[in-house]
Specification:
The chain has 296 residues and is of the alpha+beta class. It is 28% helix and 27% strand. It is built from nine helices and 14 strands. Strands 7, 8, 9, 10, 11, 12, 13 and 14 form an eight-stranded mixed beta sheet that branches. The protein has a six-stranded antiparallel beta sheet with strand order 2-1-6-5-3-4. A hairpin with a 2-residue loop joins strand 3 and strand 4. The longest helix is centred in the N-terminal third of the chain and has 14 residues. The radius of gyration is 19 Å and the shape is globular. The model has no long low-confidence stretch (mean pLDDT 97). Bound molecules: pyridoxal-5'-phosphate. Pyridoxal-5'-phosphate binds next to helix 7 and strand 12.
């Protein structure tokens, strides 16, 4: 069985014409062969949306939540609505075709398509995951970086697409290079008016006393699927959960902090801007074991 699988969607959105009239809804093709036109707006402008989904023991996790978010991102970008029935089928088929393993991942991409054509381009790619056991156990160092937007940017300036999972991730990669220049592994974005937001590919979650929190929704940050599952896990351990607007100084006072995301799962934060902090080894290990073994 292959280590990577690619399925191209024939009609990613119900609103658009098929790419190949009468062909099946999606078809597997060779992941090592180029498939996308150089005129595709996803390639030339980063104009499109994506999702990255964890697969644990052959089960795509938080699939409904990911598909909901995919549709919401499409709406934010004024893209045609994805046909979620077909996307779900393609995701499940790609996972099924992949060589079995404990942890894998699936990426769904829908672009605005070739300029002037009016049909989105869509594909599903699945592969085995890298080994994240070291970062999960030992933790990561982060730096706080100004995102340059106020915490209410989603309401004041929706055209900036904050809170949508768009393909334009060059900034999200640039900040990791800035983190590396400062000797750190990852980043926590802070709004221009001084509130903690999210990582470039993760949500911020922290524990204070008997409760687990995350920065509130509506802050131009992603509605994290892993964060939602971390709250579920915390509740199984009798902890309260909630959202709150907080400053970096308040974050630094919490008992434990994690950057949580699909695929890497919960990475404990062991240093912020060069200041060491404790990590909760037992809780983190139990949380990651729970996340990696979810039924769905
Ligand atoms: N925030 C951003 C900007 C992200 O890109 C991601 C995931 O890639 C997340 C948060 C975490 O989302 P999830 O837990 O659904 O992977």
């Amino acid at each position: 069985m292959p280590h990577e699988v690619l399925a191209l969607l024939n009609r990613p959105s119900l609103d658009a014409a098929e790419h190949q009239p009468g062909a099946p809804a999606f078809a597997f093709t060779d992941a090592a062969t180029p498939q996308v036109s150089v005129l595709d707006l996803g390639v030339s402008r980063g104009d499109g949306i994506f999702e990255t989904i964890s697969v644990g023991h052959g089960r795509p996790q938080a699939l409904d939540h990911h598909l909901r978010r995919f549709a919401r991102s499409a709406a934010t970008l004024d893209l045609p609505q994805p046909d979620l029935v077909v996307w779900r089928q393609a995701i499940l088929a790609a996972v099924e075709a992949l060589q079995p393993g404990a942890e894998a991942w699936v990426k769904t991409v829908m672009t605005r398509g070739v300029e002037g054509d009016g049909r989105p381009t869509g594909w599903v790619y699945a592969a085995q995951s890298a080994d994240f056991s070291r970062v999960r156990a030992e933790g990561i160092s982060v730096v706080l970086l100004d995102r340059g937007y106020r915490h209410d940017v989603e309401q004041t300036s929706p055209w900036l697409l904050q809170g949508a999972k768009s393909l334009s991730y060059a900034v999200n990669r640039a900040v990791l290079r800035e983190a590396a220049r400062r000797g750190a592994d990852d980043v926590v974005f802070v709004s221009s008016d001084g509130f903690v937001l999210e990582g470039p590919t993760s949500s911020v979650v922290y524990r204070r006393g008997d409760a687990v929190y995350s920065p509130g929704t509506g802050l131009g940050i992603l509605d994290g699927t892993t964060q939602a599952n971390v709250f579920r896990y915390a509740e199984t351990r009798g902890l309260a959960t909630g959202f709150e607007l907080l400053t970096p100084a308040q974050l630094a006072e919490s008992d434990a902090i994690w950057l949580v995301s699909s695929v890497r799962l919960a990475a404990p934060v062991r240093q912020i801007d060069g200041v060491e902090r404790p990590i909760d080894v037992e809780f983190t290990a139990a949380l990651n074991a729970w996340l990696a073994n979810l039924e769905e």
